[in-house]
Amino acid sequence: MEKFKNSPIVKKIGLNRILLVGVLIVMYIIFAIISPTFLSYSRILSALNYVYFLGFLSLGVTFVIATGGIDFSIGPVMFCCALVAGYSLTSYGVPMPAAMVISILVGACFGIFNGYLVAYCSIPPFIVSMASMNIAKGLASVFTKTQSVSWPQSSAEGGWYRNLVKMGNIPVGLFIFLAVAVVCAIILNKSKIGRYILCLGSNKEAVRLSGVNVKKWEMTAYIICGTLAGISAIFFVSAYTTVQPGYGDTYNNEAIAGCVMGGTSMAGGLASISGTVIGVFIIALLQEGIMALGLNKNFQLIITGIIVIAAVYFDVMGRRRKN
To answer: If we measure between CA atoms, which residue out of 120, 36, 118 comes closest to residue 69?
Structure first.
């Protein structure tokens, strides 16, 4: 085992990523054996629909967790973006491109709001994100007058936005998601932004004493997270069309589970975009597998909760061994 762990290929790819890919393959095989319909292409496309919006949420929260913070508002913020932009589209006649921009701007505004309170007002991220979650729910309900919003179908005027997810049987959304993931990986691992964000999670005080504007870079992480939540909203409605006020909470845990499972440390200072991507695929496959087996969605909530606890436990134990 030690020889395998110390091999050049394993060191380059990462043992955690290899294990995650193995888990993904084993899960797919098990679900395919239990339910033969799981092998159908339509079932794969259905799972990918879940990957897109959850993936953007997970990518965003990866930056926040890398600073040692947390954001429990991303799910409701995503719904708020979709509701505000969708209501502007259907009730005020805003063109589709403008509605999509509105969605991203609303998400970015929440990111600025959260980031400012955490970085410049020194309010704990947990408190800020819980408050922001309620604000997002309330704002969406007030703006839409507590009505659900249905974005245009493919055949309707402006329905071209649904091509962002699927064009015929081609999963266009998969290519967009992976491209954005590559950009996020470059930002996190190859840029000054990512370097400072990771350093904040490792030792914020040491970074501050070295002359770095820690508030600026901590706020930047939340802005990235909020912006990606706005993009996530577009992909959610592209797949599912209708959005209702007051929802989105469950997606917080799933997005956080995806990035923590992928190797991002809840203590901050360590993050993996590629690991987050694999983690999201596992969560989406789990959700689709439970549906294929005819089980209640509550089973997924139970398993996701267990995954989060296990991932954090192994992260804590790994840090203790290093220390």
So the answer is: 118
